[in-house]
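for the recovery benchmark. C-alpha coordinates below, seq after
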Protein backbone atom coordinates (compact mmCIF):
# COMPACT_ATOMS: atom_id res chain seq x y z
CA UNK A 1 0.00 0.00 0.00
CA UNK A 2 1.72 3.13 -1.19
CA UNK A 3 5.42 3.86 -1.25
CA UNK A 4 6.10 4.35 2.47
CA UNK A 5 9.64 3.31 3.33
CA UNK A 6 9.96 4.21 7.02
CA UNK A 7 7.32 5.28 9.54
CA UNK A 8 7.60 6.67 13.06
CA UNK A 9 4.84 5.22 15.24
CA UNK A 10 3.64 6.87 18.45
CA UNK A 11 3.94 3.68 20.51
CA UNK A 12 2.61 3.20 24.03
CA UNK A 13 3.28 -0.53 24.23
CA UNK A 14 -0.43 -1.14 24.84
CA UNK A 15 -2.84 -3.28 22.90
CA UNK A 16 -3.82 -0.79 20.16
CA UNK A 17 -0.35 0.37 19.19
CA UNK A 18 1.13 -3.13 19.44
CA UNK A 19 -1.47 -4.34 16.95
CA UNK A 20 -0.74 -1.28 14.79
CA UNK A 21 2.98 -2.04 14.83
CA UNK A 22 2.37 -5.55 13.49
CA UNK A 23 -0.23 -4.31 10.99
CA UNK A 24 2.06 -1.57 9.63
CA UNK A 25 4.83 -4.03 8.86
CA UNK A 26 2.49 -6.54 7.26
CA UNK A 27 0.43 -4.02 5.28
CA UNK A 28 3.04 -1.49 4.16
CA UNK A 29 6.14 -3.74 4.22
CA UNK A 30 7.98 -0.75 5.66
CA UNK A 31 10.47 -0.19 8.44
CA UNK A 32 8.82 0.90 11.68
CA UNK A 33 10.49 3.19 14.24
CA UNK A 34 8.77 3.41 17.64
CA UNK A 35 8.56 6.49 19.80
CA UNK A 36 7.36 6.25 23.39
CA UNK A 37 6.96 9.48 25.36
CA UNK A 38 7.11 9.45 29.14
CA UNK A 39 4.75 12.31 30.00
CA UNK A 40 3.92 11.02 33.46
CA UNK A 41 1.41 8.31 32.62
CA UNK A 42 2.22 6.65 35.94
CA UNK A 43 3.62 3.38 34.64
CA UNK A 44 6.99 2.16 33.47
CA UNK A 45 7.76 2.91 29.84
CA UNK A 46 10.66 0.46 29.54
CA UNK A 47 8.30 -2.50 28.92
CA UNK A 48 7.41 -0.75 25.66
CA UNK A 49 11.06 -1.13 24.61
CA UNK A 50 11.05 -4.84 25.37
CA UNK A 51 7.80 -5.37 23.49
CA UNK A 52 9.09 -3.41 20.49
CA UNK A 53 12.32 -5.45 20.52
CA UNK A 54 10.27 -8.64 20.72
CA UNK A 55 8.39 -7.52 17.61
CA UNK A 56 11.67 -6.96 15.76
CA UNK A 57 11.99 -3.16 15.91
CA UNK A 58 15.54 -1.86 15.49
CA UNK A 59 15.14 1.87 16.16
CA UNK A 60 13.36 2.55 19.44
CA UNK A 61 13.00 6.00 21.00
CA UNK A 62 11.91 6.28 24.64
CA UNK A 63 12.15 9.78 26.07
CA UNK A 64 11.34 11.46 29.38
CA UNK A 65 9.33 14.55 28.39
CA UNK A 66 7.67 15.23 31.75
CA UNK A 67 9.36 18.55 32.48
CA UNK A 68 8.88 19.85 28.95
CA UNK A 69 5.23 18.72 28.99
CA UNK A 70 4.37 20.62 32.16
CA UNK A 71 6.60 23.65 31.58
CA UNK A 72 5.87 24.32 27.90
CA UNK A 73 2.34 22.97 27.49
CA UNK A 74 0.41 22.52 30.75
CA UNK A 75 1.52 25.74 32.44
CA UNK A 76 0.92 28.01 29.41
CA UNK A 77 -2.56 26.49 29.06
CA UNK A 78 -3.28 27.02 32.76
CA UNK A 79 -2.33 30.70 32.47
CA UNK A 80 -5.53 30.98 30.42
CA UNK A 81 -7.65 29.22 33.11
CA UNK A 82 -8.80 27.03 30.24
CA UNK A 83 -11.91 24.89 30.67
CA UNK A 84 -13.63 23.21 27.73
CA UNK A 85 -17.42 23.47 28.01
CA UNK A 86 -17.00 24.80 31.54
CA UNK A 87 -15.76 21.50 32.99
CA UNK A 88 -12.90 19.74 31.20
CA UNK A 89 -9.32 20.72 32.12
CA UNK A 90 -8.06 19.42 28.74
CA UNK A 91 -5.72 16.75 30.07
CA UNK A 92 -5.66 14.60 26.93
CA UNK A 93 -5.83 17.53 24.50
CA UNK A 94 -2.70 19.27 25.77
CA UNK A 95 -0.48 16.17 25.52
CA UNK A 96 -0.98 15.62 21.79
CA UNK A 97 0.97 18.62 20.43
CA UNK A 98 4.14 17.61 22.28
CA UNK A 99 3.97 14.00 21.07
CA UNK A 100 3.30 15.18 17.51
CA UNK A 101 6.21 17.62 17.65
CA UNK A 102 8.68 15.00 18.84
CA UNK A 103 7.44 12.46 16.26
CA UNK A 104 8.11 14.91 13.46
CA UNK A 105 11.57 15.66 14.88
CA UNK A 106 12.41 11.95 15.08
CA UNK A 107 11.14 11.41 11.53
CA UNK A 108 13.62 14.04 10.37
CA UNK A 109 16.44 12.46 12.42
CA UNK A 110 15.94 8.92 11.07
CA UNK A 111 14.89 9.84 7.54
CA UNK A 112 11.31 8.58 7.86
CA UNK A 113 8.79 9.63 5.26
CA UNK A 114 5.69 8.89 7.36
CA UNK A 115 4.27 9.01 10.88
CA UNK A 116 1.48 6.97 12.45
CA UNK A 117 -0.76 7.11 15.54
CA UNK A 118 -3.29 4.90 17.29
CA UNK A 119 -6.22 7.30 17.44
CA UNK A 120 -9.57 6.04 16.20
CA UNK A 121 -11.53 7.52 13.32
CA UNK A 122 -14.31 8.60 15.69
CA UNK A 123 -12.29 10.64 18.15
CA UNK A 124 -10.58 13.98 18.61
CA UNK A 125 -7.03 12.67 18.91
CA UNK A 126 -6.70 11.85 15.21
CA UNK A 127 -7.35 15.54 14.51
CA UNK A 128 -4.97 16.76 17.21
CA UNK A 129 -2.10 14.55 16.09
CA UNK A 130 -2.50 15.24 12.41
CA UNK A 131 -2.97 19.00 12.69
CA UNK A 132 0.28 18.99 14.66
CA UNK A 133 2.05 16.86 12.05
CA UNK A 134 0.97 19.05 9.16
CA UNK A 135 1.75 22.29 11.00
CA UNK A 136 5.34 21.14 11.58
CA UNK A 137 5.93 19.23 8.32
CA UNK A 138 3.36 19.99 5.60
CA UNK A 139 4.64 17.20 3.33
CA UNK A 140 4.69 14.35 5.85
CA UNK A 141 2.72 11.18 5.04
CA UNK A 142 0.29 10.07 7.73
CA UNK A 143 -0.94 6.54 8.35
CA UNK A 144 -4.05 6.29 10.52
CA UNK A 145 -4.76 2.53 10.79
CA UNK A 146 -8.17 2.91 12.39
CA UNK A 147 -9.32 4.64 9.20
CA UNK A 148 -7.86 1.96 6.93
CA UNK A 149 -8.13 -1.51 8.42
CA UNK A 150 -11.15 -3.73 9.00
CA UNK A 151 -10.49 -4.12 12.73
CA UNK A 152 -13.34 -1.75 13.43
CA UNK A 153 -14.26 -2.91 16.94
CA UNK A 154 -12.53 -3.66 20.21
CA UNK A 155 -13.46 -7.35 19.95
CA UNK A 156 -11.88 -7.66 16.47
CA UNK A 157 -8.75 -5.93 17.74
CA UNK A 158 -8.43 -8.42 20.59
CA UNK A 159 -9.01 -11.33 18.22
CA UNK A 160 -6.25 -10.04 15.91
CA UNK A 161 -3.88 -9.67 18.88
CA UNK A 162 -4.49 -13.23 20.05
CA UNK A 163 -4.00 -14.58 16.53
CA UNK A 164 -0.58 -12.90 16.32
CA UNK A 165 0.49 -13.69 19.93
CA UNK A 166 0.27 -10.05 21.04
CA UNK A 167 -0.42 -9.87 24.82
CA UNK A 168 -3.87 -8.54 25.73
CA UNK A 169 -3.95 -6.59 29.02
CA UNK A 170 -6.57 -7.30 31.66
CA UNK A 171 -8.32 -5.11 34.20
CA UNK A 172 -9.02 -5.97 37.84
CA UNK A 173 -11.92 -8.22 36.80
CA UNK A 174 -9.83 -10.06 34.24
CA UNK A 175 -11.51 -8.27 31.33
CA UNK A 176 -10.18 -5.95 28.63
CA UNK A 177 -9.64 -2.57 30.31
CA UNK A 178 -11.41 0.73 29.76
CA UNK A 179 -10.04 2.90 27.00
CA UNK A 180 -7.66 5.06 29.00
CA UNK A 181 -5.29 7.94 28.45
CA UNK A 182 -2.92 8.99 31.21
CA UNK A 183 -0.29 11.66 31.70
CA UNK A 184 0.99 13.79 34.54
CA UNK A 185 -2.05 16.07 34.33
CA UNK A 186 -4.86 13.52 34.20
CA UNK A 187 -6.33 10.11 33.46
CA UNK A 188 -9.35 9.69 31.19
CA UNK A 189 -11.67 6.69 30.95
CA UNK A 190 -14.05 5.80 28.13
CA UNK A 191 -15.86 2.75 26.81
CA UNK A 192 -17.40 -0.34 28.39
CA UNK A 193 -20.16 0.55 30.88
CA UNK A 194 -19.35 4.27 30.52
CA UNK A 195 -20.95 4.32 27.08
CA UNK A 196 -24.29 4.53 28.92
CA UNK A 197 -24.32 8.10 30.35
CA UNK A 198 -26.82 6.98 33.02
CA UNK A 199 -24.44 4.37 34.50
CA UNK A 200 -22.35 5.46 37.47
CA UNK A 201 -18.63 4.65 37.13
CA UNK A 202 -17.36 1.71 39.14
CA UNK A 203 -15.25 2.80 42.09
CA UNK A 204 -12.52 0.29 41.29
CA UNK A 205 -11.97 1.99 37.93
CA UNK A 206 -10.24 5.01 39.46
CA UNK A 207 -6.45 4.90 39.72
CA UNK A 208 -5.35 8.34 40.91
CA UNK A 209 -7.95 9.45 43.49
CA UNK A 210 -9.74 7.96 46.47
CA UNK A 211 -13.49 8.50 46.60
CA UNK A 212 -14.53 11.65 48.47
CA UNK A 213 -16.36 9.40 50.96
CA UNK A 214 -13.10 7.56 51.73
CA UNK A 215 -10.97 10.70 51.97
CA UNK A 216 -9.64 11.76 55.40
CA UNK A 217 -12.07 13.31 57.87
CA UNK A 218 -9.53 16.04 58.54
CA UNK A 219 -8.79 18.83 56.07
CA UNK A 220 -5.39 19.28 54.41
CA UNK A 221 -4.01 22.79 53.96
CA UNK A 222 -1.60 23.68 51.17
CA UNK A 223 0.06 26.89 49.99
CA UNK A 224 1.06 27.40 46.36
CA UNK A 225 3.34 30.23 45.28
CA UNK A 226 3.16 31.78 41.80
CA UNK A 227 5.59 33.88 39.76
CA UNK A 228 4.45 35.47 36.49
CA UNK A 229 1.43 33.20 36.38
CA UNK A 230 3.18 29.88 36.94
CA UNK A 231 3.39 27.89 40.19
CA UNK A 232 6.93 27.65 41.55
CA UNK A 233 6.63 26.29 45.12
CA UNK A 234 4.36 24.20 47.36
CA UNK A 235 4.35 24.97 51.09
CA UNK A 236 7.43 27.12 50.61
CA UNK A 237 9.45 24.42 48.82
CA UNK A 238 10.61 25.34 45.29
CA UNK A 239 9.85 22.55 42.81
CA UNK A 240 10.36 21.91 39.11
CA UNK A 241 7.20 22.03 36.99
CA UNK A 242 6.79 18.23 36.83
CA UNK A 243 7.64 17.69 40.49
CA UNK A 244 5.20 20.41 41.52
CA UNK A 245 2.33 18.90 39.55
CA UNK A 246 3.13 15.44 40.91
CA UNK A 247 3.09 16.82 44.48
CA UNK A 248 -0.34 18.35 43.90
CA UNK A 249 -1.54 15.10 42.31
CA UNK A 250 -0.65 13.23 45.48
CA UNK A 251 -2.34 15.78 47.73
CA UNK A 252 -5.43 15.94 45.55
CA UNK A 253 -5.67 12.20 45.06
CA UNK A 254 -5.50 11.53 48.79
CA UNK A 255 -8.37 13.97 49.36
CA UNK A 256 -10.67 12.72 46.60
CA UNK A 257 -10.20 15.82 44.43
CA UNK A 258 -10.41 16.15 40.67
CA UNK A 259 -13.01 13.65 39.43
CA UNK A 260 -15.23 14.80 36.58
CA UNK A 261 -17.95 12.86 34.75
CA UNK A 262 -19.00 14.71 31.61
CA UNK A 263 -20.69 14.36 28.25
CA UNK A 264 -18.69 16.51 25.85
CA UNK A 265 -19.05 17.61 22.25
CA UNK A 266 -16.25 16.14 20.18
CA UNK A 267 -14.77 18.16 17.34
CA UNK A 268 -15.87 15.46 14.86
CA UNK A 269 -19.50 16.13 15.76
CA UNK A 270 -20.68 13.43 18.17
CA UNK A 271 -21.26 13.56 21.90
CA UNK A 272 -19.04 11.41 24.09
CA UNK A 273 -19.15 10.48 27.76
CA UNK A 274 -15.81 10.56 29.55
CA UNK A 275 -14.69 10.31 33.17
CA UNK A 276 -11.57 12.20 34.20
CA UNK A 277 -9.21 12.37 37.17
CA UNK A 278 -7.27 15.63 37.39
CA UNK A 279 -6.35 16.05 41.06
CA UNK A 280 -3.32 18.36 40.84
CA UNK A 281 -4.74 20.36 37.97
CA UNK A 282 -7.96 21.02 39.87
CA UNK A 283 -6.03 22.38 42.84
CA UNK A 284 -3.82 24.45 40.56
CA UNK A 285 -6.81 25.93 38.72
CA UNK A 286 -8.38 27.25 41.93
CA UNK A 287 -5.08 28.47 43.36
CA UNK A 288 -4.17 30.43 40.28
CA UNK A 289 -7.57 32.09 40.09
CA UNK A 290 -7.17 33.15 43.72
CA UNK A 291 -3.88 34.94 43.07
CA UNK A 292 -5.22 36.39 39.83
CA UNK A 293 -8.18 37.88 41.71
CA UNK A 294 -5.74 40.05 43.68
CA UNK A 295 -3.39 41.04 40.93
CA UNK A 296 -5.37 41.65 37.74
CA UNK A 297 -7.29 44.78 36.91
CA UNK A 298 -11.01 44.22 36.41
CA UNK A 299 -10.85 44.96 32.69
CA UNK A 300 -7.88 42.65 32.15
CA UNK A 301 -9.48 39.84 34.16
CA UNK A 302 -12.80 40.10 32.35
CA UNK A 303 -11.08 40.23 28.97
CA UNK A 304 -9.17 37.06 29.83
CA UNK A 305 -12.39 35.36 30.88
CA UNK A 306 -13.97 36.28 27.55
CA UNK A 307 -11.01 34.84 25.63
CA UNK A 308 -10.89 31.62 27.66
CA UNK A 309 -13.67 29.62 25.94
CA UNK A 310 -12.19 30.34 22.52
CA UNK A 311 -8.70 29.42 23.72
CA UNK A 312 -9.97 26.20 25.35
CA UNK A 313 -11.76 25.23 22.15
CA UNK A 314 -8.54 25.71 20.16
CA UNK A 315 -6.67 23.35 22.48
CA UNK A 316 -9.51 20.82 22.46
CA UNK A 317 -9.75 20.85 18.66
CA UNK A 318 -6.00 20.47 18.13
CA UNK A 319 -4.93 23.95 17.04
CA UNK A 320 -1.98 24.34 19.44
CA UNK A 321 0.38 25.26 16.59
CA UNK A 322 -2.05 27.69 14.95
CA UNK A 323 -1.28 31.40 14.62
CA UNK A 324 -4.51 32.33 16.40
CA UNK A 325 -3.52 30.30 19.48
CA UNK A 326 -0.12 31.99 19.52
CA UNK A 327 -1.76 35.41 19.32
CA UNK A 328 -4.04 34.63 22.26
CA UNK A 329 -1.15 33.11 24.18
CA UNK A 330 0.82 36.34 23.84
CA UNK A 331 -2.05 38.32 25.37
CA UNK A 332 -2.54 35.75 28.14
CA UNK A 333 1.18 35.72 28.95
CA UNK A 334 1.23 39.51 29.10
CA UNK A 335 -1.59 39.48 31.66
CA UNK A 336 0.20 36.76 33.62
CA UNK A 337 3.22 38.98 34.29
CA UNK A 338 1.31 40.46 37.23
CA UNK A 339 0.17 37.13 38.69
CA UNK A 340 2.65 36.84 41.57
CA UNK A 341 1.78 35.68 45.06
CA UNK A 342 0.58 32.79 47.18
CA UNK A 343 -2.76 31.02 47.56
CA UNK A 344 -3.72 28.99 50.62
CA UNK A 345 -6.21 26.21 50.03
CA UNK A 346 -8.17 23.77 52.16
CA UNK A 347 -8.64 20.29 50.69
CA UNK A 348 -11.47 18.23 52.11
CA UNK A 349 -13.40 15.26 50.73
CA UNK A 350 -13.35 16.24 47.07
CA UNK A 351 -13.53 19.98 47.66
CA UNK A 352 -10.93 22.68 47.03
CA UNK A 353 -11.60 25.80 49.09
CA UNK A 354 -9.55 28.97 48.82
CA UNK A 355 -9.02 30.28 52.35
CA UNK A 356 -6.27 32.84 51.78
CA UNK A 357 -4.37 34.73 49.16
CA UNK A 358 -1.58 37.33 49.18
CA UNK A 359 0.59 39.12 46.65
CA UNK A 360 3.43 41.66 46.70
CA UNK A 361 1.64 43.55 43.91
CA UNK A 362 -1.92 43.12 45.14
CA UNK A 363 -4.50 45.61 43.89
CA UNK A 364 -6.70 44.90 46.89
CA UNK A 365 -6.81 47.76 49.42
CA UNK A 366 -8.24 47.10 52.84
CA UNK A 367 -8.44 50.85 53.40
CA UNK A 368 -10.79 51.19 50.44
CA UNK A 369 -12.79 47.98 50.88
CA UNK A 370 -13.43 48.25 54.63
CA UNK A 371 -16.97 48.54 56.01
CA UNK A 372 -15.58 50.70 58.80
CA UNK A 373 -15.10 54.45 58.54
CA UNK A 374 -12.46 55.47 56.01
CA UNK A 375 -11.00 58.63 54.50
CA UNK A 376 -10.23 57.40 50.97
CA UNK A 377 -13.70 56.75 49.56
CA UNK A 378 -16.55 59.23 49.63
CA UNK A 379 -19.73 57.16 49.44
CA UNK A 380 -21.68 60.20 48.20
CA UNK A 381 -19.75 59.95 44.91
CA UNK A 382 -21.68 56.78 44.12
CA UNK A 383 -24.90 58.74 43.56
CA UNK A 384 -23.60 60.53 40.46
CA UNK A 385 -21.95 57.33 39.20
CA UNK A 386 -25.26 55.47 39.43
CA UNK A 387 -27.26 58.26 37.80
CA UNK A 388 -24.87 58.47 34.85
CA UNK A 389 -25.09 54.70 34.31
CA UNK A 390 -28.86 54.80 34.68
CA UNK A 391 -29.34 57.62 32.16
CA UNK A 392 -29.81 55.39 29.11
CA UNK A 393 -32.15 53.10 31.04
CA UNK A 394 -34.33 56.04 32.11
CA UNK A 395 -34.40 57.46 28.58
CA UNK A 396 -35.33 54.06 27.18
CA UNK A 397 -38.23 53.79 29.60
CA UNK A 398 -39.54 57.27 28.75
CA UNK A 399 -39.47 56.44 25.06
CA UNK A 400 -41.98 53.58 25.44
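predicted aa per position
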Amino acid sequence: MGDVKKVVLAYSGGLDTSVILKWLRDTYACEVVTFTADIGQGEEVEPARKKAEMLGIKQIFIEDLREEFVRDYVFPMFRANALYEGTYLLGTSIARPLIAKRQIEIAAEVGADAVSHGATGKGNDQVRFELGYYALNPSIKIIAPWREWDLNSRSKLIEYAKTHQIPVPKDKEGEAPYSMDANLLHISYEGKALEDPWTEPSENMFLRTVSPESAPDRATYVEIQFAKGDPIAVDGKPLSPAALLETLNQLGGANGIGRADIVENRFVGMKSRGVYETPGGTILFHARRAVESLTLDRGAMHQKDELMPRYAEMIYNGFWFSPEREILQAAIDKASEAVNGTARLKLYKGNVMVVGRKSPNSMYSEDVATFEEDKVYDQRDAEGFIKLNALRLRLAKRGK
